[in-house]
Amino acid sequence: MTGPYALVLRFRASRPLEKLTPERLHGAFLGLIQAGDPSLAKLLHSPRMGRRPFSLVPIGRIEGSDTISLRLGVIDPELFAQFWERWNKRGGFPLPIGRMKLRPIASRQDGPWAGTVPWDKFGKDTTSRIIRLHFCTPTAFRQGDLDLPLPLPRLVFRGLLTRWNAFAPIPLPLNGETIERSVALSRARIETRTFFDGRSHIPGFVGPVEFRILRSAPAKSIPALHALAEFAFFAGIGRKTTHGMGLVRRIE
């Protein structure tokens, strides 16, 4: 059984690049998809798409460099299957930024920001009641008209459960009420960091956070919560995960 995966795509420009906003990089990525799989690009543009089947984060410095590294997390592998088939046949597709078309130079499927996990292998840790996550890029949750830059368990795990339910073929024995009663924030060393997406400044937080699964939690919810923590590496957490926010790594 296949599952979500992450890889790093590298592109080279013909001259050093200026600072690029996340909004512009997101548009460039959709242009890349358009070149490889127009039907997928149309689907991703559609408001009926609902939950986005990928996360996207630029890795490393861009301004003044002639290369861009994009970390792509795919949480609906079937949707992207035809795109990668064409990518392999063509040796990749250029990344369109303005009048430039950046040449693909590498596709890394290993390293700290890459990897894959089959759906049926998530949540094998059934004993530990501690879950530690490191929020590597600014993370925030939309609450009405406000952005909340705090790692509240109900927001973190409910959001992950919604994405899991949208794409995973295996249901988890969890719901919002169980999450509310089962997980607590036990430790955090976070700092606020503003994220500019090209149109607005969004207050977010970064840093390590520890969650504790309470003694009152149903036994079957423990591996399910660990599954969501592992899934976060691919899906991201919070809002604008397709623009660079909410990149998360699990801390063992």
Number of domains: 2
Average pLDDT rating: 94
Q: Output the structural class.
A: alpha+beta
At the fold tier of CATH, the topology name of the largest domain is Alpha-Beta Plaits
Q: Specify the CATH class of the largest domain.
A: Alpha Beta
Q: DSSP helix count? A: 6
Structure explained in plain terms:
It contains 6 helices and 13 strands. With 252 residues, it is of the alpha+beta class. It has 2 domains: 111 residues, Alpha-Beta Plaits; 133 residues, Alpha-Beta Plaits. The strands form 3 sheets. Strands 1, 2, 3, 4, 5 and 6 form a 6-stranded antiparallel β-sheet that branches. The two termini are 25 Å apart. 35% of the residues are buried.
Brief digest:
This protein is of the alpha+beta class and 252 residues long. The chain has helices spanning 22-36, 38-45, 77-90, 153-167, 176-182, 221-235, and strands at residues 5-12, 54-59, 67-74, 95-97, 100-108, 115-116, 130-139, 141-143, 146-148, 183-188, 191-196, 201-213, 248-251.
Q: How are the SSEs ordered, and which strands pair?
A:
Layout lengths: L4 E8 L9 H15 L1 H8 L8 E6 L7 E8 L2 H14 L4 E3 L2 E9 L6 E2 L13 E10 L1 E3 L2 E3 L4 H15 L8 H7 E6 L2 E6 L4 E13 L7 H15 L12 E4 L1
Antiparallel strand pairs: 1-3, 1-5, 1-6, 2-3, 4-5, 7-12, 7-13, 8-9, 10-12, 11-12
Helix pairs in contact: 1-2, 4-6
